[in-house]
Every structure is written in structure tokens, then in C-alpha cells.
Amino acid sequence: MKSNNNIFSQIFLSRKLITTICTGSLLAMVMVSSASAGGITLGTTRVIYPQGAKETSLSLTNTSTSNVYLIQSWVANANGSKSADFVVTPPLFTMKPKKENTLRIMYTGPALPSDRESVFYLNSKAIPSVDKNSLKGNTLQIATQSVIKLFVRPKSLPSASIDAPKHLTCHVEGGRVTVKNASPYFVTLVQFFVGGQKLPNSMVPPKGSLSVDVPGHKNGAVSFQTVNDYGANTVKQSCNT
């Protein structure tokens, strides 16, 4: 088992961690793709950043009645690496029980495409505090990490995001379904079925396509729901072929 110091060094990279953990305690981290991590709840399940805006914001709430959390937040690229093009403030802070805080997110990088959305991922890690006086022997501490999508959306796109699913077309052949997206928006597919076979949730890039293997090489009708700007599922629809 790695020492506590090594674990915290990996979590916070070169940033110094000012907290007290009892010798002999163990730390585990759970990754979650949702708007809630432990007692920390994010104000939305996705962030829409208007391209050209100075900043956008996201609220966080500690819903716990007793736990204090250390929060670290950053933006990652699609490959999971930390993006140097965003500044998130405050990057590191503590949240007391039943309190709220607001993250300010600022894009400082080069110009992004103006004819389609760009996607990034907002990460927020929550580590609960430890009362060393109450610990006896090894104690497991769970650090949770929320990951939600952050879309940078250009102004004056030719269609509305709510209409993006109408621009999808599908083709099933050779045990694969290919979904083409003619819209300028990312479209997330959930409750995604081909011939009655459920497929994993998928995201189709703007002005691009996505191919997914169909278990059992099944053919048949393609249906899905999508996720709107507010994180809600839209009504079930069939895909144009």
C-alpha cells in the first residue's frame, strides 16, 4: 500500500495539501460521471459556456449535515488531460456542512471553431475531512470525483440546440450502427436501441459521425432519447435512415 503522502501527492500534483490525516488511515477515490460526489452536489449536470463570454459559473452545495470537504476543481480535455486553456477559481477550497460556493470558469485559450460546439470536462474532487482523535487503526476515507461535460457554444449558430436530434441519420450494416450528425451541436444518446438491443450511452460530435458495435450483429429499427441543455432526457424517437 502506498503511503498517505504519496497518495495525496498524486491527487494534488504539485499543490500543497493543508489538512490533517491520521497516520495509518487509507484513502480511496471513486470516479463518478454525475452532478453529485459524496455530499457535494453540483448545480447542473452540464455546463454551457457561451463562446466569447468572459466567464461562466457553477454552484456547489455541501448537502452533508456534518462532513467538511476539501474541493479541487479543474477542466480537462476530451483525452482526460488537464486543460491549460481554462482557469477555475477557486481551484482549491473547503466546504463546511450545508454551505454553498460558486466556481468561476474562464476560457483563456486560443480561438475555438465558430461553426460548431467544442467539448471539455469539468472535474470536481471532494475529499472528506478526518478527525484524527476519533480514528483507531486503519480507516477508509472515500474521495469522490464528479465529471460533467462543458460545452463551449458559439454564438449565432444556424439552428437551436433543441432541434439537433432532428439532424441525425442512422445506418445499420455489418453488425454496426453509424449515426451521422449534421448539426453544430454534440448530441448525447441514451436509451439507445438497435433491433431491440440496448447500446451504451453515446455522444455524436457536431458535423461528424459515430459508429457503435451492435451485440449479436442485430439489425432493425434504431431508437433513442437525447439529453437536453438542462440534463433531462427528451422523448423517445426513431432515427432517420
Structure characterization notes:
- With 241 residues, the protein is mainly β.
- The chain contains 1 helix and 19 strands.
- Strands 1, 4, 6, 8, 10 and 11 form a 6-stranded mixed β-sheet that branches.
- Strand 14 (187-194) and strand 15 (197-199) form a beta hairpin.
- The chain is globular and about 65 Å long.
- The N and C termini lie far apart (53 Å).
- 26% of the residues are buried.
Labels describing this entry:
241 residues; mainly beta; six-stranded mixed β-sheet; five-stranded antiparallel β-sheet; disordered N terminus
Helix proportion range: under 10%
Structural class computed from helices and strand pairing: mainly beta
Low-confidence stretches: 1-25
Report the total helices. Answer: 1
The main pleated sheet reads as: 6 strands, mixed
Distance between the termini: 53 Å
Overall shape: it is: globular
Give the number of DSSP strands: 19
Our estimate of the beta-strand percent is over 45%
Rg value: 21 Å
Strand and helix layout:
Layout lengths: L3 H9 L13 E7 L3 E2 L2 E3 L3 E5 L5 E7 L6 E8 L9 E4 L2 E4 L4 E8 L10 E11 L11 E14 L14 E6 L2 E6 L5 E8 L2 E3 L2 E3 L3 E6 L8 E5 L10 E2 L3
Parallel strand pairs: 1-11, 4-11
Antiparallel strand pairs: 2-3, 3-5, 5-9, 6-8, 6-10, 7-9, 10-11, 12-13, 13-17, 14-15, 14-16, 14-18, 18-19
